[in-house]
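step=encode ok
step=design start
structure_in=
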């Protein structure tokens, strides 16, 4: 089983600013934890981060036929991108949306996700641990759907 973890704009800055909101872990720390969990679960995992909407759309489109599922934090594009929503829907792959912060406890413009309705599930508010929870959840679901 092969999974792709996609991170959107500015998530490369994690650990450097706003630790009160996003925690002190860097994206590399989160990706390291994910690789450890993937190896415990016996699955393969690739990671991708981009600040560019088009590059994210392409990564999602290219995932079909290569990966079994996607874990994505679309970051600010969560609230704005019809293109990302359409790309997720078009892959047909199960997709889990992750947010470090509880976006419902923040500014009103963060309360709407254009991407969540086309995802299998959403995890938010658990910091970097949310990615690990998403990985465990998607692997368990894919395995139970296959049996
Ligand atoms: O809580 C999340 O994971 C978000 O997806 C993070 C996005 C934000 O726009 C969403 O509303 C919620 C922001 C990612 C930017 O991350 C930074 C990290 C450190 C310093 C500055 C930005």
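sequence_out=
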């Amino acid at each position: 089983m092969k999974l792709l973890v996609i991170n959107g704009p500015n998530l490369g800055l994690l650990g450097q600013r706003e630790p009160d909101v996003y925690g002190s872990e860097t994206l590399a720390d989160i990706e390291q934890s994910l690789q450890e969990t993937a190896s415990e679960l016996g699955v393969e995992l690739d990671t991708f981060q981009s600040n560019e909407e088009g590059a994210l759309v392409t990564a999602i489109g290219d995932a079909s036929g290569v990966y079994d599922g996607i874990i994505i934090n679309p970051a600010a594009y969560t609230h704005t991108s019809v293109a990302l929503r359409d790309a997720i829907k078009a892959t047909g792959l199960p997709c889990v949306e992750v947010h470090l912060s509880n976006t419902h406890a923040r500014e009103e413009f963060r309360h709407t996700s254009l991407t969540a309705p086309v995802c299998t599930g959403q995890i938010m508010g658990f910091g970097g641990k949310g990615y690990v929870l998403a990985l465990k959840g998607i692997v368990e679901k894919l395995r139970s759907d296959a049996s």
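step=design ok
step=annotate ok -> Residues 129-146 form the longest helix (18 residues).
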